[in-house]
């Protein structure tokens, strides 16, 4: 195929007879058949074609084709949200009695799925700590079927060695699922390292402007067929409008990520020199404990920084309240820089002990660095740091 940028722009829904240049929005629930025989043959899957937007729609198909080219995956489905993708990837491929091995540092709602939703259906899970991967051998049970990881993790920015995890999954015959939300396919392609399934919250960097929710499940054809069957009959489908937005967003992902990463590195370096901080974490800062690994498997360091201010939670709150430009909200991967306090928001449903284990201290702050001019981002941070002293 062509380069990343070219595929992301040039893979398009086939032209309609209106000869449009940019793919139109197909707001239609169903598609017509030329004959009763064609309808029968399409339902029987003897011929391919759109039937009903719960199954497929030209806008969702375009999005899937673009992201598959970016990830190097064979096929996929698009879902209404990232969580529908996380849930669907597990629910479609597992059954009662199966066991999931997962890295402990996971998005808050994914953690809820593993600990509160799937146990109701007899699917159990165990967490592995990434600081102790030699121990993971012992965590594999006879009924372990799936290995689910997130790298870099939200919000701890822990990095898992994709080469190692790919070999580990193959050696134990596990389905390896990687939530690639933080890196995006522009920075890292887990399928290259042996991931069977790659999931996304497209809500984040893929949309990139904080507009719509969406998710993706991508991977090997034979697994995706199971996922398609599951989705077709349970209905987590993305709306054509959201798919249209996200397919357009893919066209600018590369240039946006370059700037997110450039800005984030500059802001991380600013924090590194500050005496107001206990620590700052960013994958491409030499002080990140897995800097070498980040360099090996990621093109750039990503758009997210985490930090802890001296003075703990009260200082963190003061700092957040003093920001003038940076938004206080729970999203990330937006053109606008965003600050979040995970312990009281995105990860508040975890117990204190669970948060401690994944490095979410009470004072931890997550900064999603946007596309504003980096001098203005730093100026806002600098002012708020001063005012919070
Ligand atoms: C946001 C997020 C999700 C959930 O995605 P939604 O689109 O909000 O449903 C899953 N995983 C990670 C890593 C996320 O950041």
Automatic annotation (TrEMBL):
GO molecular function terms attached to this record: carbon-sulfur lyase activity; pyridoxal phosphate binding; transferase activity, transferring alkyl or aryl (other than methyl) groups
Keyword 4Fe-4S: no
Lineage: Bacteria, Pseudomonadati, Bacteroidota, Cytophagia, Cytophagales
CDD domains named among the record's database cross-references: CGS_like (cd00614)
Organism: Belliella baltica (strain DSM 15883 / CIP 108006 / LMG 21964 / BA134)
Residues annotated with N6-(pyridoxal phosphate)lysine modification: 204
Origin: domain of life: Bacteria
Signal sequence region: none
Catalytic activity from the UniProt record: O-succinyl-L-homoserine + hydrogen sulfide = L-homocysteine + succinate
Subunit record text: Homotetramer.
EC number: 2.5.1.-
GO cellular component: cytoplasm
Family assignment from sequence similarity: Belongs to the trans-sulfuration enzymes family. MetZ subfamily.
This protein's pathway: Amino-acid biosynthesis; L-methionine biosynthesis via de novo pathway; L-homocysteine from O-succinyl-L-homoserine: step 1/1
Protein name (Swiss-Prot/TrEMBL): O-succinylhomoserine sulfhydrylase
Keywords recorded for this protein, A-Z: Amino-acid biosynthesis, Lyase, Methionine biosynthesis, Pyridoxal phosphate, Transferase
GO BP, one annotated term: homocysteine biosynthetic process
Primary role: Catalyzes the formation of L-homocysteine from O-succinyl-L-homoserine (OSHS) and hydrogen sulfide.
Name of one Pfam family that matches: Cys_Met_Meta_PP
